[in-house]
Amino acid sequence: MKDGLRFVDSDMHVQEPGDLFERHLDTAFKHRVTTPVDAQGRLGRGWIIDGSPSSMDVDIQQYRKRATSHLATAPVLGSAGTHLSASRSASTGGLQFAIDRGYDAEAQVMAFDMEGIDIAVLFPTGGLSLIARDGMDPQLSLALCQAYNNWIHDFCKYSPDQMKFAAMLPFHDVNLACQELVRCVRELGAVGSFIRPNLVNGHFWHSNYWEPLYSLHEELDVAWCFHEGTGAWYSSMNALYGENRFYRHVASHWIEMQQALIAQVIGGVFEFHPKLRVGYLEANASWAPGLLSRIEWDYPNYRETHAPYLSLTPKEYFQGNCWVGVEGSEPEIDSTAQLLGADRLCISTDYPHFDSNFPNVSTNLLSTVSRETGAHILLGGAGLYGFTEGDFLKANAAAQGRKKLD
Question: What is the pTM of this model?
Answer without folding.
Answer: 0.91
